[in-house]
Design brief:
The protein is α/β, with parallel strands linked by helices. 38% of the residues lie in helices and 14% in strands. The chain has two domains: 3-71 and 350-456, Aspartate Aminotransferase, domain 1 (Alpha-Beta Complex), CATH 3.90.1150; 85-347, Type I PLP-dependent aspartate aminotransferase-like (Major domain) (Aspartate Aminotransferase, domain 2). The structure holds pyridoxal-5'-phosphate.
């Protein structure tokens, strides 16, 4: 059977099916219960109001019987979609054997390490599994970089998102996330990322990444720049929450050279862009470079089990036993599911499917951009796509309310997407990588219709 036929069996192929405009009555009841009893910080449920019942591949069903095309994939976690049968089977088998092992080895742990080593560049020979979230992996990467260099400062990029724990939040550029929290981990400084659509340096767009790289070199070179020599530079090879921003391939090559020139470590945060999302196992592979440390999480748990890891170069493996510890570092169900999911990805060329489908999907969305007054730019790599909504194509004034309207109307018509970006004005698509062409195009058609309908009002 062809991969495309196999992928088709994973989802409900005639999705979407909207029986009642969401949130339907059953959903409303559960949403009200949540509103009364859970934190005011709840967010996704406000943008996509519904209560979920089950998931199948790239489709989801709510408790009112509505079926959606999931083009958000649990924030990029569900690379193989919901309830992937082979991954679930591996998890079921494991749950009866042993579920928690700290970092004491087991055949399951050995298997995940060996699968990871087979997809990572050979230079990243060491693996460490920390706490289960992406933020935990970022904290471990920071700790490792600081420990090895004896330096404390870190350079991060504008538009970067690295998580919500102390260190990871300090590296996250969005001031909105930090307001009212007082001082976080000190020593983090930000430099511009090649966000060509809003070119931070002005000048020709095609040179935006060169100016960003030159600026990074400058702050490291010039002792009057106000930057202390950092332990590391951290970046997302493709920015996710910052608005699906794709730098040219040479940008990472230049950053790698600059880090080497100044003796600074390079951390690639691949929590969102990694494990097939952009059409390669790791997004840094598009540039042909190898970072010193890479972070992984999200898709690593196969079907959404929480797990995170960092991989790093042999020479950084200097920390003594117990230097970094934690209780939840050996969830064997997540390890079993993760190993199965990664093997499935390799066996079924899932990254290549994401690359091909992402390319034609972006071409479709570019057609909408061409005639639209409110879609400033459609962009992305693989199945990490963004639609930057503006009030006016000329002034590029950001339109966060239009992006939210796109999300709301798309949801009502059966397609789930999220909103992100510097100004909250980018509609973001992170569908499961096993989504079929039929479902992806249906989803894109609905989103395009929504944009055209909104446009009529402007
Ligand atoms: C690039 C990147 N790093 C880190 C994180 C944080 O991961 P988590 O939410 O699992 O803590 C995210 C989450 O979206 C991310 O996209």
């Amino acid at each position: 059977m062809q991969n495309s036929e196999k992928f088709a069996q994973l989802s409900i192929e005639d999705a979407p099916l909207i029986k009642v405009t969401p949130p339907g009555p059953q959903s409303r009841e559960i949403l009200e219960y949540q509103e009364k009893n859970e934190s005011s910080a709840i967010s996704y449920a406000r943008g996509m109001p519904m209560a979920l019942k089950r998931g199948k591949g790239a489709t989801l069903e709510d408790v009112d019987g509505n079926i959606y095309i999931d083009m958000f994939g649990g924030a990029g976690v569900m690379a193989l979609g919901h309830g992937h049968p082979e991954v679930l089977a591996a998890a079921h088998e494991q749950i009866d054997e042993i579920t928690h092992t700290l970092d004491i080895p087991s055949p399951t742990r050995k298997n995940l390490v060996s699968v990871l080593k087979s997809i990572l560049p050979s230079q990243l020979s060491r693996l460490f599994f920390g706490g289960p979230t992406g933020s935990d992996a970022v904290e471990q990467a920071l700790k490792l970089a600081k420990f090895n260099t004896g330096r404390y400062n870190i350079i991060a990029f504008e538009g970067g998102y690295h998580g919500m724990t102390g260190g990871a939040l300090a590296l996250t550029s969005d001031a909105g996330h930090k307001e009212g929290l007082g001082p976080l981990v000190p020593g983090v400084q930000f430099v511009p990322y090649p966000y060509t659509y809003r070119n931070p340096f002005g000048g020709p767009e095609e040179e935006c990444d060169l100016r960003c790289a030159e600026y990074l070199d400058h702050v490291l070179e010039d002792s009057h720049s106000g930057f202390m020599k950092p332990a590391a530079v951290i970046l997302e090879p493709v920015q996710g929450e910052g608005g699906s921003i794709v730098p040219p391939e040479r940008f990472l090559q230049n950053v790698r050279k600059i880090c080497d020139k100044h003796g600074v470590l390079l951390i690639c945060d691949e929590i969102q862009s990694g494990l097939g999302r952009t059409g390669k196992m790791f997004a840094f592979e598009h540039s042909g470079i190898v970072p010193d440390i890479v972070t992984m999480s999200k898709a690593l748990g196969g079907v959404g089990f929480p797990i995170s890891a960092i991989a790093y170069r042999e020479e950084l493996n200097t920390w003594p036993a117990g230097k970094t510890i934690g209780t939840f570092r050996g969830n064997m169900v997540a390890f079993a599911a993760g190993a199965k999911a990664l093997s499935y990805m390799v066996e079924h060329n899932v990254p290549e499917h994401a690359a091909k489908l992402g390319k034609i999907l972006l071409e479709e969305l570019k057609k909408v951009e061409k005639d639209s007054k409110i879609l400033g730019e459609a962009r992305g790599k693989g199945l990490m796509l963004g639609l930057e909504m503006v009030k006016d194509r000329e002034t590029k004034e950001p339109a966060p309310e239009i992006a939210r309207e796109v999300r709301k109307l798309a949801h009502q018509r059966g397609v789930m997407i999220e909103v992100g970006g510097h100004y909250g004005n980018v509609a973001r698509l992170l569908p499961p990588l096993i989504i079929t062409e039929k479902l992806a195009f249906k989803g894109a058609e609905i989103i395009s219709d929504v944009i055209r309908d909104i446009e009529k009002k402007y």
